[in-house]
């Protein structure tokens, strides 16, 4: 088990106050907090070796390029990709999915083809597919989920056919916490020759990820849910697919030679990294990965799971009018619920008045909310720096709110 008090010292924001109360930050599925080493890495780059990468023949450019490329290697190791060229740096999960939809999707989709996504997807794993499907005369079909919030596997199998070209599902759901059986999903999709994109926004920082063992074709995630900066992430793609795909954005970095007679494109991964990249945040992302490696992803997840179990039991016992959404067997530490006769927004506001940050609303999963006929939920999502005492205060706050509403 990790030493939570020691871990908390790494995060300056955790000793601040909000609305006159010590901050209790339970909105980690939206974005988690940053340790000082990560913000230091940003400052050190700008103050110490700010320079463009890959093209400078001077000391600073060389230092920046080395630090930038070190992140790619750290990411490769983090997900066990076979080659660092298979790691494309992006602005995050959303950009990664759009990249695949606009390049791979554009290349393979034809009239009548199907893209399968699950009912519990984030909008960013629905809308990019709808955009390309519309252009190509293809359709986006949802895989049904159960009352507990799990993909109904038999329904998924029934939907598979040779018309299905792409299956796109999340590894873990941001709104319910469900961990999806991605290996089995991928195996079945490959039987009909469909390719699979795994949205790892909620998994990469919490679950073991081995893209080769999983055999996914694409894996995308965001740095800001793993102690790294916002607007930063990466796409993993199998080399043979990335080589076959056309470029996404055009510009500097992504070319080999440009002439008005025709342009040739750079090698992987640069073919998909047009323009001056987000150098500082890439370097700081590497620092965040080292931070996770130092504390141990498994150790942190064990504590998060203990918090989830404790909070779930306590909520059921002390707030009997609460109904939990997402009671899958395997979950990341997301607790989504509604309380009878109290609007989720009011609950969020009243908790905030006591310094407790949770998320309320549809969590960018409107089709999922429609599945449960909900407008939204209250979502508490835990990180390794959260404590059992914070959970106690959160439940106390909910009990008080229920009493107030009589
Ligand atoms: N997918 C899931 C499951 C998410 O939780 C999120 C972020 N809430 C995203 C995609 C989008 O990530 P980003 O906004 O960083 O691109």
Automatic annotation (TrEMBL):
Keyword Transferase on entry: yes
Signal peptide range: none
Enzyme Commission number, as recorded: 2.8.1.7
Domain of life: Bacteria
Catalytic activity: (sulfur carrier)-H + L-cysteine = (sulfur carrier)-SH + L-alanine
Keywords for the protein's UniProt record, in alphabetical order: Pyridoxal phosphate, Transferase
Listed cofactors: pyridoxal 5'-phosphate
Top-level enzyme category: transferase
GO molecular function: cysteine desulfurase activity; pyridoxal phosphate binding
Keyword Protein biosynthesis part of the UniProt annotation: no
InterPro entries hit by this protein: Aminotrans_V_dom (IPR000192), Aminotrans_V_PyrdxlP_BS (IPR020578), Cys_dSase_SufS (IPR010970), Cysteine_dSase (IPR016454), PyrdxlP-dep_Trfase (IPR015424), PyrdxlP-dep_Trfase_major (IPR015421), PyrdxlP-dep_Trfase_small (IPR015422)
GO-annotated biological processes: cysteine metabolic process
Residues covered by the Aminotransferase class V domain: 24-394
Database matches in Pfam families: Aminotran_5
Family: Belongs to the class-V pyridoxal-phosphate-dependent aminotransferase family. Csd subfamily.
Function text: Catalyzes the removal of elemental sulfur and selenium atoms from L-cysteine, L-cystine, L-selenocysteine, and L-selenocystine to produce L-alanine.
Official protein name in the record: Cysteine desulfurase
